[in-house]
């Protein structure tokens, strides 16, 4: 398996990188993640479980009856990739719809 | 839409980044892409069409009755993100299954 496919095995599924990017700013509560990302709740629960078992994020102890999540060091290690994808998205993303020269 | 989600709109679907990474080495024929990546043919055809219409790759003129594809400049612009994901995959990917310290 190539290094890239090894990475995508963990963060290649829909919403995964968006969840990790959202946690780069610091721990987030479940409800805030769901509202900010607009991700369906069953999907969010699945992705959080997958990312937790892959050691990318961890669940914080419950406070005021709300679950919160934070990135692990492994999760923080995705910052260069997320920043690079963000730069590409800014220059080429769906919003910039003029077709480039081939 | 965040820059990251704008990028993932185009290259976030399954196989997309693996196809782009495979073309970083140079143009590839359809059959070689399919064999090297092990991607189902209908999925490959769909992803190539999507990536072509997003200006990430282009179809090369037919030679010896085989279709080939090459990255555009926009597609080459994904190299930093693909390299960063590959580095993360090498250090943290599915193969390295020891759980990191939280």
From TrEMBL, chains A, B:
InterPro entries: ArsR-like_HTH (IPR011991), HTH_HxlR (IPR002577), WH-like_DNA-bd_sf (IPR036388), WH_DNA-bd_sf (IPR036390). The keyword DNA-binding applies. Pfam families: HxlR. Keywords: DNA-binding, Transcription, Transcription regulation. Residues 2-97 form the HTH hxlR-type domain. This is HTH hxlR-type domain-containing protein. It comes from Microbacterium lacus. The lineage of its organism: Bacteria, Bacillati, Actinomycetota, Actinomycetes, Micrococcales.
